[in-house]
Here is the input.
Amino acid sequence: MALSNVLQIPTSGFNFENVAINVALESLLEGGHTKTPKPMKTGTTIAGLVCKEGVVLGADTRATSGEVVADKMCAKIHYISPNIYCCGAGTAADTEKTTDLLSSNLTIFSMNSGRNPRVVMAVNILQDMLFRCTGASLILGGVDCNGNHLYTVGPYGSIDNVPYLAMGSGDLAALGILEDRFKPNMEMEEAKELVRDAIHSGIMSDLDSGNNIDICVITKQGVDYIRPYQESEYKDKRQKRYKYGPGTTSILTEKIVPLDLEVVQETVQRMDTA
Amino acid sequence: MNTRGLRSQLKDSVPVTGMGPQVGAYGVQDTLRSGFSSVKNELLPSHVLELSEKNFQLNQDKMNFSTLRNIQGLHAPLKLQMEYRAARQIQRLPFLQSSHLALDTLKGNDESISFEDILNDPAQSEMMGEPHIMVEYKLGMM
Here is the structure.
């Protein structure tokens, strides 16, 4: 259906046509005692630290939507490149999309230049993207030719290069544990335990963090993504599938009737594979 | 590619004006095509990002050219702008999709993915314009 009021092909990018409609709808709905659905946020505890052999990142796995837990096993540690991983806090869609865009850009770069991307490159791309359109706060950790790095990127594009870090709604509790027990050049097992304790304290003190703990260990040799590192004690007994295993119903009788088929007509059709 | 702006180049950036009325022919509001005008709609942007996104690409280009001029001399931005102009003319008719391949390669957009490539892809837009009217608009006859 060709419309006669469209004079140009619409430009790609952000489209702000619905903003006014949304504002009008919200004001209408609030008066009528109905609520607009809230976006899914990963109100979160994420933490990271630099140890002797690499970088350890940790996150909880709860995603909330208003006052309801929307996802109990949400993956907050995103893959950026083989040597860089990123934890995200904020609106779930924002962190997903931003990290996906970053990962695509870095893949194009590494295909062009034949090298693994450096962590500073990822941080700079993120900073530009977030300064332009804000959204998520992220912790980037990775190992490259210059060493082990841990960066934080704020929602408006501020960056900081630090040896240990926590972000999200549970960051105060996690940061307390990290401040108390962090030492430079820790051993791998000790570092994993420290990150686990930091996330655990975030889970205990913050309503928006909970369920299991994921840990991601990045070293020069490779990445170990342990999901879940520790499961919460309060697990659901609900099953997601209610299929019955074979042998649940007992077989009473069995009767086999073979069907006799004879070939009546046979045609061969050649397939043209040129 | 974003310039980490040299602050001295900020004077060249395009100023952010208001939304402005939709002017048609003769400089007045084109009520038939764009509906009734309302002062509130024109003065206030509904979203915080709308104004900054409108001029973002223009500002980036201006800053880049101005930095280039200061570093390499006037010939550098002149040659680049000439090439941009030539590449911008290789397009299909207004109502068809053009790939902008030459322009993208010149600007470096073929090596990066950003929001313009994902959101609101014109190839998948749900509205189609009338071909005759679009060509007349492009030629300035409307």
